[in-house]
Amino acid sequence: MLSLAEETAAVAASTRAYTIAPAPLGEALNQFARQAGITLSVTPQQTAGVQSAGLQGQYSVEQGLAMLLGASGLQAVATDSGSYVVRSAETEALSLSATDIRSFTLGNALGSTEGYNASHSQIATKTSTALLETSQSVSVVTRQQMDDQGAQTVAQAMRYTPGVLTNPYGATHRYDYVAMRGFNDGAVDNIYLDGLKSMGDSGTFSTMQVDPYFLERVDILKGPSSVLYGRSSPGGLVALTSKKPLYTPYHQIQATVGTQGQRGVGFDFSGPVDDDKRIAYRLIGLADKSDTQFDHAEEKRYVISPTVSIDFSEDTSLTLQAYLQHDPEGGYHGGVPADGALHKRNGRRISEHFFDGEPDVDGYSRDQKSFSYQFEHRINDVFTARQNFRYQDSKVNIDQIYSYGWTTPTSNQLNRYYTGGDERLHAFIIDNMLQADVFTGSAKHTLLLGADYQRRKTVVDWTSGAVAPLDAFDPAYGNDAIDYYSPTSYLRRLEQTGVYAQDLIEWDQWRFSLGLRHDWVTTSDENRIAEAARPQGTEIEDKRTKTTGRAGVLYLFENGIAPYLSYSQSFNPNSYSDSAGNPLAPTDGTQLEAGLKYQPPGTDNLFTASVFHIEQENLASKLPQENFYRPVGAVRSQGLELEAHLQLTDNFKLLGSYTLTDIEYSKSMPSTLSTPGNVIDNKSNSPTQAPKHMASLWGDYAFDSGALDGLRVGGGVRYVGYSWADAENTMKVPSYTLFDASVGYDLGKVGLKGVDVRVNANNLTNESYVASCASLSFCYMGEERNVNATVSYQF
């Protein structure tokens, strides 16, 4: 068995024919490294704004790199491990920081994140893998895309991603709800940060949220993914990557003002700490406030995040992070009946500004903090060890009065219900990985062995009660007396241990992916207050084990076409209990996916088409006014997703997507609803909040000459097809089309160096629409037009 360095040396000594078209230098180097079969490390800062004339003909690795780099002032230097590092030709003695190289190689390899086109991702394999060579559907939202589109939340950042419904609960910003491939699994089970699962509790109000200002990119993996991550949703997962320290000085401050009383300020400072550039820091802060589109509801947020990266040697690095967030006001989170939202009731329609609570009662506050680290050590030319860890802590207090249907068939009065919560969550998660890069004959193996452990404890104290009705069309607030029910208090625990193995095989132009994982999961629910059916201290415990796998195959043609086929599994233990307090069975998911990817040679443009078939068993559902869940059988989701990321010219970027999702209950368990004897069988019906068709298009053009030099203009359109408002599929939520726009200008062109201004408008035509309905009693108003102006200064 040859080591990676020995095999790379053999490759470097040989010559081969290359066909690389003229392109930005970063893209040309990426294409060369893939064709040559080498590992090449370079930062986006080195290649920014540099063009390459391409490469045609027969060359060795060293000759090809020299030709591509040309007169750029850069040169490629071989390392002891057999890989190559790009450095400045004038200052060869001053080596590039290993942390610069390492973070770039692991995060996006040679894929410059300038623009919208990332070329590599870790989300599907926990190693840096080219998107073109990944046998599963992966989308990436870059930092520039988030900025250009003015994303205010993580969910908004994914508005132009196929297969993702980002606003199932309308204009609320309290949680990042993301429905993927038809599965709406709330705001916990599919969000990850820096490779580790968000440890919020999906059965409570304790859901973590990260502000997009603190993120470098968002990666979206479609379909089941338990083989590397354990418990997860079958629809897919969203991986957030936070901003990391830079080894060149960077300082930015920004201010934002907008409609709905939005105003905020932020700062982002980074750079090296020592002369040797072994230690770097990053300090990011944000303060933001908005009145929201709903009456009597505000949002407030204060966040600070310090990060330090330490490069102990060329083989060992450590990044320490903290994230401290205080949300004293959490805005609005509620729904209204379909009768009055989707169509008129008694000749009137409920306003998109309607607030169904009580101004003197309603409130939501969240304090969350996390402390984490990412450690990496290269043992030798073959083995690299990594360990990621995060501790999370949160405190949530909620008082909310919300409506749940009309008092009589003809009245304008809404029934109202009060819920109160005082929650404390403590959790930690650790992931240990050992990667080995070896060759067996002509096949290259990237082996990954891992073991992860997570633990979560949530203490919840809940109160509830009845409140006087409210007129939905002429609300008169102040009748806020609460008829309290018996309180409840629980201690909820979760513990998961998982071991996994993965082998990524490159053999000629074939790419194989094999993975296997086994999990041990324990959940428990202990009541802290005596109840009618459960004495105080009664604990209900559920222990489960599960083995999941994944297999994929892809063939990479020389012309950039790559067909693939994959199979993957997921499972998710239910933290939910039925009306008797017994835990529900875990959900299980399986997916078969086939697709075709195309990346024109010499570019980072990527076209993807994928078809999928997902089966999920043991689904659970809950009526909003109940405190228990019900089994609702099985769901089958299948469909088609198309996506294109294009850099048409140096100035023009384009994104396009189309989604077809055909989802239905394939097996149902009749469920007794709130009305005794009302039993439904939903087999062959479609779940709510699952539109069949979605499409989007976004373009951005930057002028770089003439009178318009420095001006940037962007625009997009988003279409969401109809969905069903009830499980019986008797009423439709109409489709809607939204338009977005952005205008930016570099004020450095008129003498204000480092100053940039950007204006973003979402729902430009102020379309009034219902985003979706969870039932006929709960429909969610869509986000009205909002316009924000951001001024930033970089120095």
From TrEMBL:
GO cellular component, one term: cell outer membrane
Top-level lineage group: Bacteria
GO MF term set: siderophore uptake transmembrane transporter activity; signaling receptor activity
InterPro entries, A to Z: Beta-barrel_TonB, Beta-barrel_TonB_sf, Plug_dom, Plug_dom_sf, Secretin/TonB_short_N, TonB-dep_rcpt-like, TonB_sidphr_rcpt
Cross-referenced SUPFAM superfamilies: Porins
Main location: membrane
Bilayer disposition of the protein: Multi-pass membrane protein
Domain Secretin/TonB short N-terminal: 38-89
Cellular location(s): Cell outer membrane
GO terms, biological process: siderophore transport
Alphabetical keyword list: Cell outer membrane, Ion transport, Iron, Iron transport, Membrane, Receptor, Signal, TonB box, Transmembrane, Transmembrane beta strand, Transport
PANTHER family membership: FERRICHROME IRON RECEPTOR-RELATED, FERRICHROME OUTER MEMBRANE TRANSPORTER_PHAGE RECEPTOR
Family: Belongs to the TonB-dependent receptor family.
Protein name per Swiss-Prot or TrEMBL: Ferrioxamine B receptor
Source organism per UniProt: Pseudomonas cremoricolorata
